[in-house]
């Protein structure tokens, strides 16, 4: 689950271990008078009163251990600037990373390539989350009820990225979709036309600015465009890698059908291109939902040539041998 991957990531960061945390090595746990800050974790049990140990490090020295790339306590590979910020917070104000308080520090959560299959309800504890990236996992079902509430209420730029998973149906995601979402990334999944087109409208995503549907199995260009046209705030669209991108008039039809679009398949749409394709949206007959492939075979060895007819003598009763072949191409 996402929660399990999240806690494993925190464990790797070592927020409670040297040089982070509330250990005896950290002067950040002391107040201005040099006394332990009891208000954070409560008083120590009897007989375990805290004393001022020798060799205690300053917060500045501990931070330096975290920032030095050659330090044994440097950030593990694959971590983000947010992770570095968390570790430094664990030095300067350790109480903020204790227990459930750590949830309030996350604005972005990136769980990439961890074999996650389930978006569980544990995510609901991340009340400040604005960016959720779960790419390159094994997610097939997206339960929108388990998405953090801030993805619905925050006024910040909100991102939900689910590229390279096994999503084939958007019904669960659209049961209670985050209406404030601005970017939805669904590239490299198993979505197809026409069953999924109906979930790509303003009824579910009224504030969507960017949409990535690349490398799925969308084939119905007219049907998809009729749904996408309701997304009045959509400015960035990625559809490359779908079968419909093979249609000769694919780009021109999209450019003219979605006049507010600024970028299509990572290519900026300029005034000249809009003028070039002006009026194409009113000519749906120009759209052909098929692709023509011509295959030329240069030479085949090892099989008889069926075009060479056997020469039989007149009146011969010898059997006639006929050869036929079937060649199949998979695209």
Automatic annotation (TrEMBL):
PANTHER family associated with the record: LEUCINE-RICH REPEAT-CONTAINING PROTEIN 51, NISCHARIN RELATED
Keyword Repeat: yes
Record keyword Transcription present: no
Region feature (Disordered): 33-54
Transmembrane spans: none
Top-level lineage group: Eukaryota
Gene3D superfamilies, sorted: Ribonuclease Inhibitor
GO cellular component: cytoplasm
Organism annotation: Rostratula benghalensis (greater painted-snipe)
Protein name, per record: LRC43 protein
Assigned keywords, A-Z: Leucine-rich repeat, Repeat
């Amino acid at each position: 689950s996402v929660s399990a991957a999240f806690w494993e990531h925190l464990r790797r960061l070592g927020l409670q271990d040297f040089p982070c945390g509330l250990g005896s090595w950290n002067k950040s746990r002391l107040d201005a008078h040099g006394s332990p800050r009891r208000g954070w974790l409560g008083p120590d049990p009897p007989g375990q009163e805290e004393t001022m140990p020798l060799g205690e490090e300053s917060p500045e020295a501990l931070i330096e251990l975290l920032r030095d790339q050659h330090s044994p306590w440097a950030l593990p590979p694959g971590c983000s600037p947010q992770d570095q910020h968390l570790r430094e917070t664990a030095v300067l104000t350790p109480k903020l990373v204790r227990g459930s308080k750590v949830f309030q520090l996350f604005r972005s959560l990136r769980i990439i390539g961890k074999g996650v299959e389930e978006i569980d309800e544990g995510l609901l504890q991340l009340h400040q989350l604005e960016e959720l990236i779960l790419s390159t996992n094994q997610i097939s079902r997206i339960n929108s009820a388990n998405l953090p509430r801030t993805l619905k209420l925050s006024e910040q730029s909100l991102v939900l990225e689910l590229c390279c998973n096994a999503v084939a149906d958007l019904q669960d995601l659209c049961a209670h979709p985050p209406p404030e979402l601005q970017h939805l990334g669904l590239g490299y999944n198993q979505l197809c036309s026409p069953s999924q087109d109906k979930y790509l409208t303003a009824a579910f995503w009224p504030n969507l600015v960017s949409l990535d549907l690349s490398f799925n199995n969308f084939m119905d260009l007219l049907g998809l465009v009729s749904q996408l046209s309701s997304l009045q705030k959509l400015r960035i669209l990625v559809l490359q890698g779908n079968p419909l991108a093979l249609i000769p008039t694919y780009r021109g039809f999209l450019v003219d059908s979605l006049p507010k679009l600024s970028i299509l398949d990572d290519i900026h749409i300029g005034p000249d291109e809009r003028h070039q394709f002006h009026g194409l949206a009113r000519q749906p007959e120009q759209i052909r939902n098929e692709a023509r492939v011509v295959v030329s075979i240069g030479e085949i060895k090892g099989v008889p040539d069926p075009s060479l007819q056997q020469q039989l003598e007149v009146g011969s009763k010898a059997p006639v041998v006929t050869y036929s072949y079937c060649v199949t191409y998979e695209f």
